[in-house]
Amino acid sequence: MAVQICFLLSWALFCSTAMLLAIFLKHRKGCGKSDRKLPPGEMGLPWIGETAYFYRSQRGNQLFEEFVQPRVAKYGKIFKTRLLGSPTIIVNGAEANRFFLSNEFKLVISSWPTTSVQLMGINSIMEKQGEQHRFLREIIATSLGPAGLEILVPKICDSVQLYLDKNWNVRDEISLFHSAKALTFTIVLVCLLGLNFEPGTLSTFERVLEGVFAAPVSFPGSKLSRAKKARREIKEMLIKVVREKRKEMESGLVGDERLLFTRFVSGMIRGEISEEEVIDNVVLLVFAAHDTTSFAIAMTFKMLAEHPDCHYLLLQEHDDIMSRRRPGENLTLEDTKKMKYTWQVARESMRLFPPIFGSFRKAIADIEYEGFTIPKGWKVLWTTYGTHYNEEYFKDPLTFNPRRFEEPIPPYAYLPFGGGPRICAGNQLAKLNILIFIHYVVTRYNWSLLCPDEQITMDPLPFPSHGMPIKVSLKSS
Ligand code: HEM
């Protein structure tokens, strides 16, 4: 009996030791696997990680200076952290931008916060992958190709002039940022898509946009619940418009295929795209264009105000273009191509003040990069500042020097519009919007900043905290 008990005890001891050893070895192997090649960096507290530091520096528009740069100095261009529960690798530099952006769909896919997806809709282009993404981009790109742009120019000119006559001629103090927003909204909805809208639609859209990056908590009165309500209103409005358009086109009324909305509805009639896809992509286009283009315009004017020599050169370019046109005649696409210096000024402003800090991707496979492993499921954040502010690519990076764009820029070093398969689908429209707006403002108005030391805030997109107030008066001739 004693021998049996002894045997059982020894057997139990042997089994538990073996089990503990197996757990220990497995744990060690696991740690080894995840630690072995992970990039350096701190993961911070459980779940929350370094989110608090990230948000704090973002709010003060110091995300690069206070969060990214000190970590680059400590760990190098690639480092790990944890943001909002997700292990994240932040990458900087042209080579990293090229690697991650051009491997979209193969190694990474874009990754947006849940609230953004809920408000833009799961059918928008930003949520599409592979073939479905290519198909939607083709529809959008056709309206923004050379033929589409040719038609857009006079429409944008009309919208800008009408807006300025109505709003700027009767006031001497204007919020430049809000003017740019109102105009961008009209240009996307009316000029690009071909939709008309009721007064008040802009503020409904803006309520949606305010929730796009809000905290994912919805209670009565919260940003997110207000945004969701506004999104429902927009959906109802757009369903009506889509169905009317479809009925018209099915009853034989030929739509103007040069307008993006007509192309969307044609695709719907042919069964290639659903009603939800049309609605979600209209909302996405407004969102993608709105704060980005307006911020680019606002910062270009700020740079012009701070660099009168650049303003002088730019004005000469526009006076010259104007002198070749009959009074009241609209600009043409050819005229916008002559605005070379103006585009250099705008590009330099977007280099120093990129409207988009960078954006998130998610690894869809274990990725080997620069001797490190980025495990499947981890997020990757590429940044514009990582190259825009780097001496390696831009001499005296903090100096405003539009002429630097006369020299070729290394690939993937200048990325206000991103890169790879998800490069901004609206970059040519943004360019026209910026150039044409500048043309009419500088040739018609004397203007000056009312708040030259205005702070730039980020939430999470950057904006001038007081809306960039300016003083304007009509030029005498
Ligand atoms: C100065 C103005 C603009 C800037 C700085 C800008 C910037 C960007 C950037 C950086 C991306 C890539 C995001 C990523 O990689 O995750 C992007 C994507 C996109 N942008 Fe723009 N954008 C601007 C204006 C516009 C306009 C006017 C439109 C159209 C009306 C537009 C439509 C889009 C679309 C549809 C995408 C998604 C492309 C895709 O997923 O394939 N953007 N934009």
Automatic annotation (TrEMBL):
Assigned keywords, A-Z: Heme, Iron, Membrane, Metal-binding, Monooxygenase, Oxidoreductase, Signal, Transmembrane, Transmembrane helix
PANTHER family registered for this protein in UniProt: CYTOCHROME P450 26 (PTHR24286), TAXADIENE 5-ALPHA HYDROXYLASE (PTHR24286:SF221)
GO cellular component, one term: membrane
Signal peptide (from-to): 1-18
The name this protein goes by in its record: Cytochrome P450
InterPro entries recorded: Cyt_P450, Cyt_P450_CS, Cyt_P450_E_grp-I, Cyt_P450_sf
Keyword Cell division applies: no
GO terms of molecular function: heme binding; iron ion binding; monooxygenase activity; oxidoreductase activity, acting on paired donors, with incorporation or reduction of molecular oxygen
Cofactor(s), by name: heme
Family statement drawn from the similarity comment of this UniProt entry: Belongs to the cytochrome P450 family.
Record Pfam families: p450
Keyword Transport: no
Subcellular location: Membrane
Annotated residues for binding of heme: C424
Membrane topology: Single-pass membrane protein
GO BP: sterol metabolic process
